[in-house]
Amino acid sequence: MKILHKYIYFELLKTFFLTLGLFVFVILMDRASSIAETVLGQGISLLDFLSVLIKGVPAFLGITIPMAFVLSVLITFIQMGSNNELIAMKSCGISLKKISVPVVWVGIFLSLASFYITMFVMPESNVAMKKQIEQLLKKKITMSISEKNFSSNFPGITFYTEKLYPQKGYLEDFMVSLQKKDKLITIFAKRGLLRTVKDSVFLDIQNGVAHFLDWKKPESLKVLNFKNYTVKLYTFSEKEQFQAVKYKTLIQLLKRNDLEAKVEFFKRLTVSLSPLIVGILAFAIAVLIPRGSMGVGVLISLVIIVVYYVLYTFAKKTALKLGIPLLPLIPDLLFGILAVYFYKQAINEKLKLDIGGRW
């Protein structure tokens, strides 16, 4: 039995890590393609760019681990069925319940790993990533500004420029809008230079026109023509306050004890439990469908992934609107019921899913 379980563990984990690597690669490429031009075009090194990407990996490991596990379980056991390995095992008196033991143990391990990742690694990674982006922004403050597009890289400040020289921080034929409490300052100028002094960002402007508007007294609009003008745009705080729940570890969430923190906790808990639940469900379906149904198995795994993710997204958003922090657990509850039902039917061999392939 130990040799059999070792074989199943090997096949299962081999497929799992391959599919997990594929999912992570696809998501990374999607993220990389959306920011590569912006970041690499500003003089940011490839090493810094890759560092930011890698620090973002834990943020989506929570959802990619169950995705990879459900696909690997279905592929592994459908392949074993196609090779008549399951029939050979059962003919030797080995029950499906015993065959499923590696799936259960791997599911438990992945659930524990997901719990640790989502509760501790992910928030710390989010903090590290934000800090590095801020450091890069200090070095290259034109990083999020692009030509002929409106962009807002600092709170309350909007840029538009016709020409940008990111290596030197020069702007030509540009507009900058600064919202300060009840006042709006809009500046149009021919040339400008973005620079940093310690933790402050300054904009040196030449040959421009500034419009000063007080929202409480719009009739008092003032227009100022100038040759040289320097504006202090932003000051980076020495101690960044990471108040959003995505930056909070398990201990910090429990200390907050408000609705948003409770929803975040149950959202992460749902993701943590999902590998075990969807793994058992995938095993049951894999042994219930006919042999040679690899294509059907892959399709079923994709359906499970999509339905689970839709329920998960809907539940976490609805929880905040209705003020019910337990709602994010709905996907695990529904899929848990399905997993228990199909697992019992599979080990008792009372049900066959006639959806293609051959018996």
Automatic annotation (TrEMBL):
It is a multi-pass membrane protein. It holds the Pfam family LptF_LptG. This is Lipopolysaccharide export system permease protein. The keyword Nucleotide-binding does not apply. It comes from Desulfurobacterium pacificum. Keywords: Cell membrane, Membrane, Transmembrane, Transmembrane helix. It is found in: Cell membrane. InterPro entries: LptG/LptF_permease. The lineage of its organism: Bacteria, Pseudomonadati, Aquificota, Aquificia, Desulfurobacteriales. The chain crosses the membrane at residues 12-29, 60-79, 99-122, 269-289, 295-315, 322-343. The keyword Ion transport does not apply.
